[in-house]
Amino acid sequence: MTLTFKDETFRDDFTYSNSPSTIRRFPFPFIEDKYRYSVNIEPHTPGPKGSVYEYAFDIDEHYVSEMRDRAMVLDADPGRCQALAHMMPAQWDMLELIMTSLARDYPDLFTLERDGAHWHWINRPLGIDQKFTFGEVNTLPYEPMEYIGRQTQGDFSLQDQRDNQLWMDAGIITSQADWSLDFDVGMNFFEWHGPVPLAHEAGVFERALKFLLNLQIGSPVRRLNWTMTINPRLDTSPENYHKWGKDRTTITPENVGKKLHLRVELQGLFRLPRSNAIMFSIRGYLMSLEQIVTVPKWGRRLPRVLATLPPELVDYKALGRYRATAIDWLSKYDDGAPTSPGGGPD
Amino acid sequence: MSGSLLRRVRVAEVERVANRIKRFRFVDIDNAPLSVFSGGSHISVVMHSGDRLMRNPYSLMSSPIDTSSYQISVLHCGDDSRGGSKFMHENVAVGTELEISEPLNLFPPVKLAKRHVFVAGGIGITPFMSMMNELDGLHADFEMHYGVRSLDEGAYCKYLQSRYGSRINIYRQDMGQVIPLESILGDQRLGTHMYVCGPKPMIDWALQTAELLGWPAENVHSEQFSAPPLGNPFVVKLAKSGREIPVKGHQSILEAVEEHGVDAPFLCRGGACGQCETGVIACDGYIQHNDHFLTEPERVGGKKIMICMSRIQTGSITLDL
Amino acid sequence: MTISTNKSRPIYPGLSPDLNARSNLIVCDKAGAAAVSELLARADATFAKRTTVFVADTLSDGDMTTLATDIAPAAIEFLPTLSAAIARLREILDAAPMGVRLYAAGTEPLIGSVVQAGADYSIDHLSIKTEHRGSLMRRVQCVHCKGFTENVTTNPVTCSHCGLTLMVRDHYSRRLAAFQGVCIDAEVPGDVPETEAIYQ
């Protein structure tokens, strides 16, 4: 597969957009015509060729530009990447997992040669050629999580497993949907999910935790999460909310198709072998309504789903200011015809 | 949904390391690298004995970063056991092919601890061997107190002493030596964690000693998984299919339903992880809870059972399966 | 009232004596001192003899004497501020063996500071006995500038470092011993709800 990397921005002039082939592989998260909460976890096994599920870690045409945006975020706010001291073995686990996966799945782009602890990593798209000693921090320009995190699309957090809980004790988070790593680092599974409405009462998090505590080496799982963003802005952090928050009031019937984006996170959960930690990957995909409706099934389904969202969810995902405008604009793409089950395009 | 990926391995080495203890070394059947693992992990070994399928968990004692082979030690439990250890001792030799699960860790050293105190009895030494290997590599502070019946019955004493030096303390029952746990625990720095693995009475004694010395429960850990105990035969009724399945005296409920083609969820098969928790719809009499997972109220409530370990005395039990 | 739908918001179960602890270290403020007196009244002299109470507050001479008498034979130390009490606690924990038990009674910032200090000595937060007494005032971290604003009694509150108007959330970090404050008028600057004194 040959990838042409785009040169685009996720801030200021927002030149980001998806090529037609990228549009069709977008992980549209709604599998039926109304909103219904589900845990929706499935094994993270190799998916259909060309899909976002094909490989453990998905690299697409936005790779180079996304990594540039990440570097800018980290320069301005180093607190977006933190690791408590006891997480170093987990950091090395993460580096190993990602490097071996990328080298295996994208041999044109990445190469990994290993001679015992002497590793040689080549990242062609970013022009990186690095020899280092696995396990020795001072042989890399950054700690392992940051080092490989700066070269992989998506945010990552590392959870230590102890006392029948998972503790978010490290992470590199620059493209989050409005939560703060700096605030949440050190929290357990129930605590960092504290602000999420509804799910606690239904026992959703208790069951999810029990499942994750038993997650095994070699058997990762994945699920989709979604929200909406104004402009293809990656850094929608609470830290910068006072800068991007007003975007939410700038949606009009004329610009909603272009400006409002569906933001889908493909989340992966991997058991890390030497640290027994769990790595949580959050791979974000952004698509404007305008581009979404080029797939007729999605144009029909999206307004139907938006119209059936429970109020607590509208609140929590902060869709209130523009939901009606979005549904109005989308309704011209909904001719009332039935849609096929599942999220993929027809 | 069944528990885990299985890997085919071949036995590369068998050694009698003590009177009733054999060490086994496994390599991948295709000599592929095995997963690295975290100290304290165990694997399940699948054993086919005639028409019986057994899966027993055994702690990994080898170096966690050695991907060339895994090593376990098995204590021969004698004729009144279910036969898993008997099978390993009598039917497994160099060249035997087996299936094992990926490593699973229910007993890791606490990464936030300032210091670790290990208390082991007999075969309970095994999880600590991979733990000490890992902690030694991290230059962590630990000490081991290992009780054996005699040097003939206790495995790896010389090995441990030569590798870890004065951090290892051995207590020989045949010489009247006992682990002076009170004085050991009475003099530890703040932030120390204690871990115990061995026969149940030893675990109970160690946990109680720590509690009476004012150690908080959060700093005390034990590995308590064991083989399902034997009992009387009884019948399991499956509510969803209406089937009735006999459970023999030496079988766990899980094994009995698997033998009859039911794919029930499980993971550790030792009563510790919670994966096999099943709803009880009806039951003749009391459930003998042999697991380490359910809370006291849950046991008394009688609505849940861990089918890998627990049984009933007689009659039948109807499960939400 | 310390109840919230947010699961990160801590709950303080109340003080109870650990009769097996070799040494009990209790940190409290004036309001929390009442909980400490009640605790010692419930426990026996053996427990009291193993207990030291650190009062992080300025009390009148009369009040100090009364308290000391109330909790005898437990030992007592008076410190003028919370930070002085935490520094003293750390001094003791530096040399303490296993068998020590920590207790905290008073405002949330006091409790949070004790739990924070304990964490540095690998004392699990679940091992620490806590009881909320007195003011509901909070310590708030501004998610934007990372500055802490102390003794917050209102919602919203002005960040004492960067001046943004912050909504005080119930989302709480044990590591920072603070609640999260987020700019309340990011979307429509100036659109700020009435200030309510809800954490008095």
Count helical runs of chain A.
Answer: 13
Biggest interface between chains: A-C, 30 and 27 residues
Distance between the termini of chain B: 12 Å
Strand content bin of chain B: 25-35%
Mean pLDDT of chain B: 91
Structural summary, described in words:
In chain A, helix 11 packs antiparallel against helix 13. Chain A has 346 residues and is an alpha+beta fold. The model of chain A has no long low-confidence stretch (mean pLDDT 94). Chain B folds into 3 domains: 96 residues, Translation factors (Elongation Factor Tu (Ef-tu), domain 3); 109 residues, Nucleotide-binding domain of ferredoxin-NADP reductase (FNR) module (Rossmann fold); 86 residues, Ubiquitin-like (UB roll) (Roll). Chain B is globular and about 60 Å long. The model of chain B has no long low-confidence stretch (mean pLDDT 91). Chain C folds into 2 domains: 110 residues, 3-Layer(aba) Sandwich (Rossmann fold); 60 residues, no CATH class. With 200 residues, chain C is an alpha/beta fold. The interface between A and C is medium-sized, with 30 and 27 residues.
